[in-house]
Amino acid sequence: MKVTLNKKGGVYSVYVPKKDLEELVVEVEQQGAWGGLFTLNNGWILEFPELDEEPELPQTFNTKLVSRG
Fold it and tell me: Which Pfam families does the entry mention (predicted)?
């Protein structure tokens, strides 16, 4: 699932274009230097790719929907 990740004031948000949905990230279970499981305000859990460092944001990522909460 393609999503756009943004960060403002230390808070991540995710925009899902196909659903016209924007949600705040409430929890991050980091795997590696950056990436892992991001839990959204609506209960969804998205798996972001592991990267060596935090990327410049906003950026579009291919993620996996792990759970709809």
Answer: NifT
The answer to whether 23 touches 38, Cβ cutoff 8 Å, is no
Distance CA 33, CA 52 (A): 5
What are the two backbone dihedrals, phi and then psi, of residue 20, each rounded to the nearest 5 degrees? 45, 55
Residue 28 is encoded by which pair of tokens? 């991050």
d(CA 25, CA 46): 10
Q: What is the pLDDT of residues 28-69, one digit of tens each?
A: 998 778 999 999 999 999 999 999 999 999 999 999 999 998
Q: How many CB atoms lie within 10 A of CB 18?
A: 8
